[in-house]
Design goal:
This protein has helices spanning 6-46, 48-55, 154-189, 191-205, 221-265, 270-296, 307-321, 343-360, 389-392, 412-422; strands spanning 56-58, 64-67, 83-89, 92-96, 117-121, 129-137, 144-152, 305-306, 328-334, 338-339, 364-372, 375-382, 426-431, 438-445, 457-461. It is of the alpha+beta class and 463 residues long. The protein folds into 3 domains: 58-153, no CATH class; 221-296, no CATH class; 305-461, Histidine kinase-like ATPase, C-terminal domain (Heat Shock Protein 90, 2-Layer Sandwich). The strands form 4 sheets. Strands 13-14-12-11-9-15 form a 6-stranded mixed beta sheet, covered by helices on one side. It has a 5-stranded antiparallel beta sheet with strand order 4-3-7-6-5. A hairpin with a 7-residue loop joins strand 5 (117-121) and strand 6. Helix 1 packs antiparallel against helix 3 and helix 7 packs parallel to helix 8.
Amino acid sequence: MRPPSLSARLLAVSVVWIAALTLGGGLLLERAIEDTLVRNFDRRLADVLPRMVAGAELDAAGDLVGFGRFALDPAYGEPYSGRYWQVSAKGRADRRSRSLWDRTLVLDLDRPCPQVCTGRSDQFPGEPLRIVERDVVLPGSTTVFRFAVAEAAGALDQEVARVRRLLWTSLGLLALGLLALAALQASVGLRPLRRLSASIAAIRSGRLARVPERVVPPEVEPLVAELNALIAQNEAVVEAARTHAGNLAHALKTPISVMMNEAEAGSPDLAQTVRREVATMRRHIDHHLARARAAARRPDSTARTPAWPSLERLARAIERIHADRGVVIDIDGDREAVFRGEMQDFEEMAGNLLDNAAKYGGGRVFATLRCHGEWLELVVEDDGPGIPVPLREGLFRRGARLDQDKPGTGLGLAIVRDIAAMHGGAVELGESEDLGGLQVVLRLPAVPPAPRGGRRSATARLA
């Protein structure tokens, strides 16, 4: 199933986020505004209660007879005006405002209201009320009177509805504006990726060689740099393959011509000539195949290879191969050394060096592993005759062999140098101080060792 586009993902996230914020914020804001309007409404009603209590007058029997000092609002004297008051007590007659006319406020006298109690009532059909109540004991009386003031809540409900409509309309317009902004951001923000796609299409069609790095924002520059590096590497691999194919064809041309000439001339040494030229062709084929594999293999920056176990395996194998000559390989150094690369690469390099030392030396080989920070060194020494300084660099050329009596293709050091260079390493030739023969120093990237109390070093005698 094809995943959704980046634009669709960005818009989906924006829609969900904006909708959640708008809905959540709108509900909270709506509740806050409604509570504020209701509190203000109730506070205005509650302001009437202290004046009623201050103006209350009792007769000799303890009944409320009126509010001598209470200036009544004219609305309380107009029937069904929407503003009402009432004073009630258990066992005593209710005192009601004229505006109630033939109606009575139903008050729950069993519920104590030592402080101001507010609430909503629908006891009058078609006229919802807001009621404010308080229990008061008047001077000279032990009776608990319930003072209540009520007002029709229709105007309050209309105001709340109006504010609610205004709020949700405003939030809806704001959400639409934010969604339009998110769509614009997705379109403008992803434009560099569309330019990158166009550049890749131009590279494929041959109109461009590389993706321009200056026309992309900093966030996309690493991607462009990696893409250009990949293109450069592919070009290098293709060019190397083309070069190796051309070199191989050129190298095979001469042996083939020699065999054809010998065959046409009916030479009596044809079989020997064929064997000699086929051996030459085989060396060329092995050389170019090995170098093509080394050039095509891309180093893996995440690969880790413990060097000591690989070196032990190679030493045992090479000792068995040259057992008839009594070759002995000693290894020494850092057992914890780790090569930052693939095991195949390390064993191909180390195997070539150990095999050359065993083949061309006198039978003794020293191999030493050393770590210097982020670099690993493999030093291979033999007790052979060594190589003069002027001839050392020539050993890295393809097919270079100083000892023609020993079997081989003369490709070992060239392959080692190619693979080491691929990893950013190097190979150096020198003279062994201990054995007197050739010393080869292979320098490769290593994984820096973790801080420890000490480093173990040991010498292993391999049988």
